[in-house]
Design a protein that fits this description.
about 300 residues; alpha/beta; globular
Length: about 300
Amino acid sequence: MTCVIDFLNVGFGEAAVVRVEDGQRSFCLVVDAGDLNCDKHARRCSLGQYIREYGIDKIDALILTHFHKDHIGGVHEVLGRVPIGEILLHVPLPAHLSNSRLNDHSTPILASLSLYISILRQAEELGIPVRQISEPFVLSGLAAEFRLLMPNQAKLQRLQAELESLDVEALNLQEERLTRIDRLLNDTALAVLIRYDNEPAALLTSDVGLDFWDPYKPEIENIFLLQAPHHGDSRNISRALLHTVSPQVIVVSADDEGTYQLPHPEFEAVVQEHSEARIYYTEEAGSTHRIIRMDLNERTIHLIN
């Protein structure tokens, strides 16, 4: 049996693909999908490119950790082009938003909301099941287990209330509400704990903050690979988190253009002070790899062009 996690260089954004193969049996899980049009750069690899290049004929499950466009934009590349067993998410849209025809890309948060509405509509049209997660949930794929870790419920309720109150006919009058929604998306993202052969192997952290981990500390001890929260944001990493997870490898999903000033220059210093983990960037100055691959059997890292 083989099992790999591939972190794609999607520029500023995140997309990870887990593939488990055992003879004629296989399982493919995608966690987030990167942004729109990331394949315009030759050294990057969009989710759509990856699916074509590796001949993947089905995505068994697609997890959307939250609906910022740098995490969901690439979904459109694969919808209708490869079968998807189900989409898993935890932030449903109120009817007045999901039934709207919002298509406003004038700001990042409006572009994110527009993309999310479009993705959910297209999934419904294609008959793709959408599973709404409301509590920690375990998904199994052959020898791999994926535990979806939920955010703080009070924060999630605040996000839902803001979405319920959003008036799509008067968006120009709701800048403060849109800003709150934008910030709450990171605060209410999902994380994914991957176990393989009954051992913790990787922790995919999306954009979550430090307080996210309080209920999960016993579950996230001694994990080989940690995905850096929020693209290498030094505010989202700490001595306590590094000591709990005790990672041997940290993967930072970011571009080399300093988008949103990430990753922070202080990030590496915090890691080096409190950890012996090796740091890998999906993209950095002078890099040529398009994929960072973790082999879950060997616990090794490979850079793939």
